[in-house]
């Protein structure tokens, strides 16, 4: 399960790797009320408030400076002691917990118990306020729209894209052919609005679930090279930041609620899966529930095919 985070903040695994490069400089590329995204070479690091769920590519601490203190293009330095602006130490690593996602479950419970946990997660999602098309699809509901033809067409397109993903996973399990899933993923990549389009959030859930389930079952469903290749291809169709997160997901580096959800389902932990579902609901406007659809659909297909 996810590594513990100290009350004074947390550093993700990838953030620690960046620290290992020595002193490096990054550029602020996006500013939000509780987080700042910094580009460092070909990676991205989120500097955010400790109330956010930890991610391998994040450094979180209480009392992050107000958004007005940051501007896109501003330089930030990281070294062995912490995060600096100029020579001023903004945050010290001292006392921080290290977050490392589990990335697999070494002792999954029987399929029937996993299926029960999966259903508990779906029911938990249905009790939460609806957040986007993928949340509705997760709960087996017809997505609500504003009644316009464009909105209805977009919702129908999402549903069709989701069906393509499910068929691709099923074909991968039955025949070992990953090409249908790759094509479905490319059709979904970059679909939606925002820094991480909902289609990418779905794919992040699918990629990390495929890897997690393969590692937990002792038989990879798709090789790491295949997962990386799919993420790389999808990354060309979306923003650099979202593409980076897709590459992370293919390696199992995801935010704590997604990793916790996969652990809870594999362990048949009903309380854990409900808690993780609720935590995903709090991720962004729609990102968490889109990711949950990816996780849930992948697990559902895999459990059905194992029957």
Keywords:
single chain; 307 residues; alpha+beta; OB fold (Dihydrolipoamide Acetyltransferase, E2P); 2 domains; 9-stranded mixed sheet; 11 helices; 9 strands; 50% helix; 14% strand
Task: Explain the layout of strands and helices.
Elements: E1 10-12, H1 13-19, E2 24-31, E3 35-40, E4 43-49, E5 58-61, E6 75-78, E7 82-85, E8 88-92, E9 97-99, H2 111-127, H3 133-138, H4 149-175, H5 179-188, H6 198-217, H7 224-235, H8 240-250, H9 256-267, H10 270-281, H11 287-306
Parallel strand pairs: 1-9, 4-5
Antiparallel strand pairs: 1-5, 2-3, 2-6, 3-4, 6-7, 7-8
Helix pairs in contact: 2-9, 2-10, 2-11, 4-5, 4-11, 6-7, 6-8, 6-11, 7-8, 9-10, 10-11
How is this structure best summarized?
The protein is an alpha+beta fold.
Describe this structure in words.
With 307 residues, this protein is an alpha+beta fold. Helices cover 50% and strands 14% of the residues. The protein has helices at 13-19, 111-127, 133-138, 149-175, 179-188, 198-217, 224-235, 240-250, 256-267, 270-281, 287-306; strands spanning 10-12, 24-31, 35-40, 43-49, 58-61, 75-78, 82-85, 88-92, 97-99. Strands 8-7-6-2-3-4-5-1-9 form a nine-stranded mixed beta sheet, covered by helices on one side. 46% of the residues are buried.
């Amino acid at each position: 399960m996810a590594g513990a985070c100290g009350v004074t903040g947390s550093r993700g695994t990838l953030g620690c790797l960046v620290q290992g490069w020595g002193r490096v400089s990054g550029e602020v590329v996006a500013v939000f009320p509780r987080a700042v995204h910094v580009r460092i070479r070909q990676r991205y690091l989120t500097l955010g408030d400790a109330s956010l769920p930890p991610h391998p590519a994040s450094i979180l601490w209480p009392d992050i400076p107000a958004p007005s203190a940051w501007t896109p293009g501003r330089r930030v330095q990281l070294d062995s002691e912490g995060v600096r602006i100029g020579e001023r130490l903004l945050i010290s690593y001292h006392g921080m917990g290290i977050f490392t996602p589990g990335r697999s479950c070494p002792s999954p419970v029987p399929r029937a118990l996993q299926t029960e946990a999966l259903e508990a997660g779906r029911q938990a999602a249905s009790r939460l306020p609806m957040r986007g098309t993928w949340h509705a699809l997760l709960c087996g509901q017809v997505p609500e729209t504003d009644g316009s033809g464009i909105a209805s067409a977009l919702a129908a397109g999402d549903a069709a894209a989701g069906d393509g993903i499910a068929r691709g996973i099923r074909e991968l399990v039955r025949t070992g052919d990953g090409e249908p899933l790759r094509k479905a993923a490319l059709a979904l990549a970059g679909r939606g609005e925002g820094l991480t389009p909902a289609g990418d959030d779905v794919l992040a859930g699918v990629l990390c679930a495929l890897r997690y389930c393969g590692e937990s079952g002792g038989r990879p469903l798709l090789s790491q090279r295949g997962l990386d290749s799919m993420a790389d291809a999808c990354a060309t169709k979306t923003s650099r930041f979202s593409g980076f997160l897709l590459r992370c997901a293919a390696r199992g580096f995801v935010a704590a609620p997604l990793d916790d959800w996969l652990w809870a389902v594999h362990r048949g932990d009903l309380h854990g899966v409900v808690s993780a579902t609720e935590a995903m609901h709090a991720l962004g406007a729609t990102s968490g529930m889109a990711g949950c659809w990816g996780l849930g659909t992948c697990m559902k297909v895999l459990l059905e095919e194992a029957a």
